[in-house]
Amino acid sequence: MGLTVLDVEVANPAKPGASEKLHFLIDSGVFFAIVPSPVLERLQIRPQPDTEVRFGLWDGSKILRKKGRALFRYGDRAGMSDVVFGEEGDCVLLSTQTLEALGLRLDPLRRELRPLPTIPAPSAARQARTRRKP
């Protein structure tokens, strides 16, 4: 299998007009997107207080990274997602959570993005009415 990469815009939700397009590696095994800290700082995205994330590395060591929220745009799709403040040496990654916020999923065999199926969940009241009918 090969790598899947995608150009996606990142913006501050409070100032969505200013954005930066980055070349992301899509990693379906990662829960948080990782964006270099200097990019997030230029966009004035601030880390959320007390939200450091601990990552386990392949060699058994652990690292801590700050976390915030960013707006991601791909074509005509936009969505909010958690973002980790990457440090020197960290990959620029797009996560499953971010893809879902954009209404997309990765087809791992074709290495293509596909729309997420949108299935509205019935309300609890509607489910109760449906069960009472003979």
Element layout with pairings:
Elements: E1 5-12, E2 15-26, E3 33-36, H1 37-42, E4 53-56, E5 62-65, E6 67-74, E7 77-86, E8 93-94, H2 96-101, E9 104-107, E10 112-115, H3 124-132
Task: Give an overview in words.
It is built from 3 helices and 10 strands. It is of the alpha+beta class and 134 residues long. The protein has helices at residues 37-42, 96-101, 124-132; strands spanning 5-12, 15-26, 33-36, 53-56, 62-65, 67-74, 77-86, 93-94, 104-107, 112-115. Strand 4 and strand 5 form a beta hairpin. Strands 3-7-6-1-2-8 form a 6-stranded mixed β-sheet. Strands 4-5 form a two-stranded antiparallel sheet. It has a two-stranded antiparallel sheet with strand order 9-10. The protein has a single domain, classed as Acid Proteases (Cathepsin D, subunit A, domain 1).
Domain count, please report it: 1
Q: What percent of the residues sit in helical stretches (DSSP H or I)?
A: 10-25%
Number of strand elements:
10
Label the overall shape: globular
How would you state the average pLDDT, rounded? 88
Number of helical stretches of at least 4 residues: 3
Low-confidence stretches: none
Trace the largest sheet across and list its strands.
3-7-6-1-2-8
CATH class: Mainly Beta
The H-level CATH homologous superfamily, spelled out, is: Acid Proteases
Strand content: 35-45%
Largest sheet: 6 strands, mixed
SS-derived structural category: alpha+beta
CATH architecture label = Beta Barrel
Distance between the termini: 52 Å
Which value, in Å, is the CA radius of gyration? 18 Å
Order of helices and strands: EEEHEEEEEHEEH
Q: Enter the CATH topology name.
A: Cathepsin D, subunit A, domain 1
